[in-house]
Write a structure and sequence with these properties.
Oligomer: single chain
Radius of gyration: 17 Å
Largest sheet: 7 strands, mixed
Number of domains: 1
CATH architecture: Beta Complex
Strand content: 25-35%
Distance between the termini: 33 Å
Order of helices and strands: EEEHEEEEEEEH
Strand order of the largest sheet: 6-7-8-9-4-3-10
Number of strands: 10
Structural class: mainly beta
Length: 157
């Protein structure tokens, strides 16, 4: 059985699940505000267990509780029935393994989203400047794998 893992940015909340179900892109206003973005991508979790810490919850509607890390604020999941979790795909240790199958609430979709893939990427001096900036970043976020202890003794978040 494949063990699928993920968690929040700071590492205070980690999870594992036995499998993943259908993934969807949601354009509703609640997802936009909860994630601070123009869309949310969620995947159904099968056999989810919290392996380090547990999320705090906010009842964003009469139908859903949104789980997040109380320490760093990372949005982790939506729970619309006891034990029925949809994980925010970006919290998976390997988010690239998930392929969304559908879009919902498309009436709220940002008008410019269809053109996003066509936006230019930096080139020449601008690319060198961006590359230099990101090369100087020292990440304090939890790595994309389980750890025995976090943060490590030699590095505090």
């Amino acid at each position: 059985m494949t063990r699928i893992t993920g968690g929040c940015q700071c590492g205070a909340v980690r999870y594992a699940c036995q499998g993943l179900g259908r993934a969807v892109v949601c354009h509703c206003r609640m997802c936009q505000k909860a994630l601070g973005n123009v869309l949310g991508v969620f995947v159904m979790a099968q056999g989810l267990t919290w392996t380090r810490g547990k999320p705090k919850y906010f009842a964003s509607s009469n139908k859903a509780m949104r789980g997040f890390c109380a320490a760093c604020g990372t949005p982790l999941c939506v729970m619309d029935a006891p034990g029925h979790y949809e994980l925010a795909v970006g919290t998976l240790d390997h988010p690239q393994a998930v392929q969304p199958e559908a879009q919902v609430c498309v009436g709220g979709r940002a008008s410019w989203l269809a053109e996003l893939a066509g936006l230019p990427t930096p080139a020449g001096d601008a690319k060198a400047e961006w590359d230099g900036h990101f090369a100087s970043v020292i990440s304090k976020q939890h790595p994309d794998h389980d750890t025995e202890v976090w943060p490590p003794a030699d590095r505090t978040p």
